[in-house]
Design brief:
Blueprint (H helix, E strand, L loop, with lengths): L61 H9 L37 E7 L12 E6 L5 H9 L17 E6 L3 E5 L10 H17 L3 E9 L6 H12 L4 E6 L13 H13 L8 E3 L8 H16 L1
Parallel strand pairs: 2-4, 2-5, 5-6, 6-7
Antiparallel strand pairs: 1-3, 3-4
Length: 306
Amino acid sequence: MLLRTRYFPLHSACIFPSSFALSSPKSFAPIQRLNQFGPPGELKGRFSASFSTASAPKPPAPETAKFAKAFLFVPPGVERNEITDDMILPGSNIVIGPYAGHSQIKQVEFVKSSAKPKDCPKDDRPEFAIVGRSNVGKSSLINALVRRKEVALTSKKTGKTQLINHFLVNKSWYIVDLPGYGFANAPESARSDWSSFTKGFFLNRETLVAVLLLIDASIPPQQIDLDCANWLGRNNISMTFVFTKCDKTKAGSKGKRPDENIRDFQALIRKHYRQPPPWIMTSSVTGLGRDELLLHMSQLRNYWDN
């Protein structure tokens, strides 16, 4: 099933002018809840065992859990009045539904780098595109997800990724590493081409399940991230906000903790979304959110496959 029935439409007004903005605003169809996907009552306690790891990362603050519950992402097959605490992924607003399933990564292989969207793999395997501002920790997150060092090159040079890189996971689905936006050290031609280069991928890949939009939680909300989220929403492309660096607080962030920066970002996003997009806290250093993010990806992928 093609996942073009997106979860996250924006209001039609666009107030974030930037290189992401469209020449003319689009209108958005109301979200239609689908309830024929299985009995949500069977979910209670079903996935609790999936969250345990050998060295469990520090759990999110209670304030974060309270905030997440107020604005839940409810997937198809789940009724809001039947949601229990153990159905909500820790450090996120994501409710697990009947489509969540096998989420372990047993095998990953680099397939190819493509200079243009038309050169990307042409099979029908589902894809998750990972994108974010330069230096957001994109390569580190990919390496943490697959638990292999240097699967995606981690470089001290911002703007290093300038191609579309496909990684085949378990011989069944792709992680797609896209060039970062907002990088100052890349060639001028690469900076000017990013918009059409990446937008072409988002708009023309029928196998795209969702975009994982990475946001640096150690700093205050950045306009360029809001612009990107706005453009994706206006084009009806499903996304999940993946907050990175949730283990640290940088100098110059006015002393705010990552969870406070996340709340500030969400407050801005909520002004323009009819329903809250899914979001999750992660850290490639501590492993926070790794298993939960993979479980969320499994339910999106399995829904796409049906």
